[in-house]
Amino acid sequence: MTGMERDLGIPTLQESWDRVREKREAQEKANRLRYDTVEANMKKMEADIKAFRQRQRQAEEAVQAEKAKRQKVLEEAKDLLGFKVDPRDKRFQELLEAKEAAMKKEAKLAKKKEKEAKSLARLTSLENSGSTEASGPA
């Protein structure tokens, strides 16, 4: 190679081969990485599909439960008022609000009773453990 060819930026044969080899190695590495990623995703796919179907089933059940709840409220309104009620009717909306308020109140009372029961159980367990320690060996 002459000095003039070096000045022009023409690579030697060895440099060209090295560049081609590096490019091929980089491509093979990228392909291996992509293959490994696909393989890992294929291993997870069955579990992902099951999880997806479970979420779909839960969403469908939630929709069905909401429809059933709405239908039940409509039936109760019909029984209470004596005629079929449009869900957009003002009387139905008032009835719905009253029913929701009553349900909230019931839930609050149930939560309060549960809390009282837990505290009572805790107190009785403390009293029992305290009395066994006091009557223990002296």
The gyration radius over C-alpha positions equals 37 Å
Q: What's the total helix number? A: 3
Shape: elongated
Number of strands: 0
* Separation, N- and C-terminal Cα atoms: 105 Å
- Biggest sheet statistics: none
Low confidence ranges: none
Determine the mean pLDDT: 87
Structural class: mainly alpha
Kindly state the percentage of residues in helix: over 70%
Element pattern in H and E? HHH
Proportion in β-strands: under 5%
Structural write-up:
It is built from three helices and no strands. It has helices at residues 3-7, 13-81, 90-134.
Helices and strands, with pairings:
Elements: H1 3-7, H2 13-81, H3 90-134
Which characteristics define this entry?
elongated, mainly alpha, 138 residues, 3 helices, single chain
